[in-house]
């Protein structure tokens, strides 16, 4: 039996699954503070004594360098109670089985790469556009990472010519997350993104920013597929705008797959991250 945790800034999902990555049981609860959350995690997994390995995909930034002192920690998160929290270390105090540790978006990327929208490709990027913006990349089965993990949501972009908004990122102001996350949309227009009319001008701006980001990822990494998930992508106008703007900005400079094949939605839906966690666990066996 395999176990997985999707540790999100809003909620935690815990699941156990079989070796075919079918989910056998799952639970979820709001992200509060570490001690309470940890008790709920352990309460769920302690009911299963056949767990062989676990995969965790966590919100971050997190320490992923096995040789660094902060390996396994949630590090500089705006969620103060979770800052510098040794999440993996706490889990290892309770469980003897191997535990894989990566970012929430890398886990979702892994799920989509093996079983979802990336399954026929050797490389893909997964970007979530939600409360935050973050991305993971897998090339030939391996995460792209080095000194740390990627932070694809915090790249600096040019403002849209009709958008004076200075952004909501506490670190960079108008980085991608500062301009195109759900909270950035809400701050600009004064209503929640999900309540905003399809014809509002802001959707074209969001498409414009995501297209700039995808252009940068394309030029740096040349992936075979880019998968766009997260709550903001529920507004179908965004995907249409991204594809149109992307093609304009690329201006035929290099070849990419045909745009409808290249920029796609996830096919595992809400299960991408937890499925990726099960795959990460399986890789440890
Ligand atoms: P999280 O990022 O917290 O894991 P989500 O990926 O669901 O969660 O993203 C939540 C964000 O997505 C919120 O800012 C919300 O306003 C926005 N959102 C949710 N539904 C929609 C929708 N239908 N259209 C546009 N934005 C949406
Ligand atoms: Zn930023």
UniProtKB/TrEMBL annotation:
EC number: 2.7.1.4
Family statement: Belongs to the ROK (NagC/XylR) family.
Enzyme class: transferase
Protein name per UniProt: fructokinase
Catalytic activity of the protein: D-fructose + ATP = D-fructose 6-phosphate + ADP + H(+)
Gene Ontology MF term list: ATP binding; fructokinase activity; metal ion binding
Keywords per UniProt: ATP-binding, Carbohydrate metabolism, Kinase, Magnesium, Metal-binding, Nucleotide-binding, Transferase, Zinc
């Amino acid at each position: 039996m395999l176990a997985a945790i999707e540790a999100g800034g809003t909620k935690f999902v815990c699941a156990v699954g079989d070796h075919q990555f079918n989910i056998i049981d799952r639970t979820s609860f709001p992200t509060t503070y570490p001690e309470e959350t940890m008790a709920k995690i352990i309460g769920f997994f302690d009911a299963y004594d056949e767990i062989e390995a676990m995969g965790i995909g966590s919100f971050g930034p997190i320490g992923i360098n096995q040789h660094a002192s902060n390996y396994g920690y949630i590090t500089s998160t705006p969620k103060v109670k979770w800052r510098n929290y040794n999440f993996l270390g706490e889990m290892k105090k309770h469980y003897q089985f191997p535990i894989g540790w990566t970012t929430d978006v890398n886990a979702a990327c892994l799920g989509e790469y093996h079983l979802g929208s990336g399954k026929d490709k050797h490389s893909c990027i997964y970007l979530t556009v939600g409360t935050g913006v973050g991305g993971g990349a897998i090339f030939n089965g391996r995460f792209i990472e080095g000194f740390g993990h990627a932070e694809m949501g915090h790249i600096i972009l040019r403002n849209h010519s009709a958008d004076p908004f200075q952004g909501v990122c506490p670190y960079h102001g108008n980085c991608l997350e500062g301009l195109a996350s759900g909270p950035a949309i809400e701050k600009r227009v004064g209503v929640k993104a999900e309540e905003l009319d399809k014809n509002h001008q802001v959707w074209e701006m969001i498409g414009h920013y995501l297209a700039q980001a995808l252009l940068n990822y394309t030029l740096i990494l040349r992936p075979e597929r880019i998968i766009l998930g997260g709550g903001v992508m529920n507004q179908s106008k965004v995907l249409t705008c991204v594809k149109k703007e992307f093609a304009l900005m690329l201006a035929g400079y290099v070849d990419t797959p045909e745009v409808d094949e290249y920029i796609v939605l996830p096919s595992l839906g809400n299960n991408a991250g937890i499925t990726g966690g099960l795959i990460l666990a399986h890789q440890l066996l």
